[in-house]
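Reviewer 2 asked us to include a model.

Predict the structure of this chain.
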Amino acid sequence: MIGANRQNKFVGFGLLIVCFNTQQFIHRAYAMTHILISFLGKSPKKDGQYRQANYCFADGSQETARFFSFALNKHIQPERLVMLGTSGSMWDVLCDDNHDQWAALSEAVEDDSVTQAQLDDFAIPAGEALKVECQLKRIPYGDDITQQVEILQIMAAAIQSGDTVSLDLTHGLRHLPMLGLLSAMYLQTARDVSIKNIYYGALDRTKDDLTPVMQLNGLLNIAAWLNALDGFNKTGNLAPFSTLLQQDGMAQETAQCLEEAAFFENTLNIPNARAPLKKFTAATKNGLTGIGALFEDSLKDRIAWHKEDNLYLRQRSNACFYLQQGDYLRAAALGYEAYITWLVQQDKRVPRLDPQNYEHRQQIKESLKKNNDYKLLNNLRNALAHGTRSDMAEVQRALSSKDNLHAELSRLFNSLLPKELK
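Predicted model (structure tokens):
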């Protein structure tokens, strides 16, 4: 009996592991679901039928259909098709006129009165006809921001984190494809969704009875660049550009110079940040290609400081940049270091002091104990770095508001950091 009980425990434990692993597998499988999201518009009928088109894909294959998503569904074979349309979209294209409920649906389409309940009834027949699981969702027309947000919420509710999404922007009202593109950006960022492809069936470019299918993934890449540029303008972080430039075809060794420079800038090591930027500039002297060409001027303007031969000017340039961006901790820290560098460089003793030598910099600091602006900048830097309340009235006043701090640091920079070398 003891052996049997022990054996039963092992069997039970084994079943528990199997169940757990099965749940893990199901979760992973579901998380990797490939979903096609499509907007359903409204097209005029001819002789009671919607117009057919022969869609030609990039690989040369062709699919004929009355609605582009039918052709796209057959071509990419997703595990689920989520169709979004308004109360007046051509939902009756989903079934033929022999279907028992087709007449009622067709009438509702004409009256702009299709209900979600009707769509729920048609989801299974549509899925059987298209050989894919279907979700049919009625969305508002998107006339205002409230309805536009609702459309995004309906889309988001149809997917799970980790899903892969293909997006069809062909049909729908003219403003819905724009909302669809924004939704792709939203799903990528907020829901951790991978956007596999964005498609557009260009009916207006039909030639010789072939309608080309365009892939618009580049639009998302441009959006990624805009996002990186926005973050870069706020924080000065160059690292995200490295990945984007590699996607554009740049050699990994060259693109990663920006990651290396970003690391040293983030650790306030301006001398070491200069070398990878010089290497990057030399490797891209003929200009950036692809999407990067759109952002080349902004990127190279920001890293132009590395061309300064003088350490003080490089530190001052970065301190002023971070002050402008509202990154007051880095601004104060670099402004403080720039001032020490300036004084070391101005020292006339022989042999000359080295601005990168710690002991030489300490010698200069010893002579500044009576410099009130230096002491205030140093105390502001310390208060910002440690996040503690200073017992100095001047520091407390500066840290009492953003405007006060910005004004005080600006005054100190103007007082302590000359724009040009003597």
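Strands lie at 34-40, 45-46, 49-50, 53-56, 62-65, 80-85, 133-138, 164-168, 194-201, 211-215. The first strand starts at residue 34 and ends at 40. We have added this to the supplementary material.
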